[in-house]
């Protein structure tokens, strides 16, 4: 199977740009989801680089399942749990008793998600060198 890790990493960076653009447009729910996607794709890029298979969408679990020689700081896994929560509720109205995701997501949450995704991308990129 060809190494597509650089494609995954470039898409992670593109998703992070999308998160920032959504933030600037005031679409905080999409900003949070795009940040989650950016982090997920960055970790999957690292799995690809290591010639390993990665399944699922939970960034904290993906990070925790990296090989032992990739020392993932526990604090980064904890931060990933923050953006894991944006995978479904940021997109679907049935994630809340009433209202749409756009009614509930805040600039602060989106800003935090963007920062965390950036940290995860940088962590993954550091293992590409």
Describe the structure.
- The chain has five helices and no strands.
- The protein has 129 residues and is mainly alpha-helical.
- Helices cover 62% and strands 0% of the residues.
Distance between the termini: 21 Å
Specify the number of helices. 5
**How many strands in all?**
0
The general outline is: elongated
Taking all Cα atoms into account, the compactness measure Rg is 14 Å
State mean pLDDT (0 to 100 scale).
96
Which blocks of ≥5 consecutive residues have pLDDT under 50?
A: none
* SSE topology string: HHHHH
Largest sheet geometry:
none
Structural class: mainly alpha
Q: What share of residues is helical?
A: 55-70%
Strand content: under 5%
Key phrases:
129 residues; mainly alpha; elongated
Write the SSE topology:
Blueprint lengths: L4 H21 L2 H22 L9 H6 L9 H11 L22 H20 L3
Helix pairs in contact: 1-2, 1-5, 2-5, 4-5
Please outline what is shown here.
By secondary structure, the protein is an all-alpha fold.
